[in-house]
Amino acid sequence: MTDDELMAGLEALKGTLIAVATGGPRIQEVNDVYQRQFALVAAELARRGLQNPVTYGSLWDWYGRWSTGDLPTYQSRRDFIGNLINPFVNRIRTGRAEELQPTGWQRVDRSVGELRDRLAPARNEEQFQAVGLLGRESLISLAQAVYDRARHPPLDGVEPSATDAKRMLDAYIAVELAGGANEASRRHAKSALDLANALQHQRTATFREAAMCVEATTAVVNVIAIVAGRRDPQ
Questions:
Q1: Of 138, 91, 92, 78, whose CA–CA distance to 113 is shortest?
Q2: Which pairs with CB-CB distance under 8 Å and at least 24 residues apart come from 45-48?
Q3: Which helix (H) or strand (E) holds 134?
Q4: What is the pLDDT of residues 51-94, one digit of tens each?
Q5: Residue 154 has what DSSP assignment?
Q6: Cα–Cα–Cα angle for 109, 114, 119, nearest 5°?
Q7: What is the per-residue pLDDT across 175-225, written as a single tens digit (0 to 9) for each?
Q8: CA-to-CA distance for 137 and 139, rounded, in angstroms?
Q9: CA–CA gap between residue 39 and residue 37 (Å, rounded)
Q10: What is the pTM of this model?
Q11: How far apart are CA 89 and CA 78, in angstroms?
Q12: Chain-centre distance of CA 71, in angstroms?
């Protein structure tokens, strides 16, 4: 199977998955065709040593997923399937996976990479919560990499513990992005941090909340890496 044929097969799976979940054909009318297409794509991906981004071998499996309640709208189902398949199709098209620019802080880079890897196969509340916990660990590693107590006094006078990422990063942002010229940047960094912190501590989680947690956490890491000079041209 050529790359074009594989991409066409993935797009066909994507189209069917979206169609049956958004008022299109009934599952029993198209499931046989879908399963045959799935088997062809799965076999080709296995031959290439690639993990199949589509985990629904039957449309009834997909029905069980979208009917759990956290994908209530047609658009949320389109987005969910698109987020599963589109990056993979792009990887085949370009010959490379979408890469995150490393910060050089090894623990931070490792945890952010794992954060995205954990989100892709997450299917239930416990797995979504695990994404949030890993996001929290990412920010703790980030804070420990940049925080200097002598330079970044806590804003509220409370000494941050070794795992108090929010207090450490708030202090870092206030000092390193001080001044009126940096007000917009400071506000952006603070908003991303507040969102990441709030999502990481939710006891109930959906795919969308977990995905937002990943993006907010990544945004904080990217902003701090830029401020710290880790993205300056060599």
A1: 138
A2: 45/6
A3: helix 125-146
A4: 788 889 999 999 998 888 888 899 988 888 887 787 777 666 65
A5: -
A6: 135
A7: 999 998 888 889 888 888 888 888 777 766 787 788 888 888 988 998 999
A8: 5
A9: 5
A10: 0.59
A11: 16
A12: 17
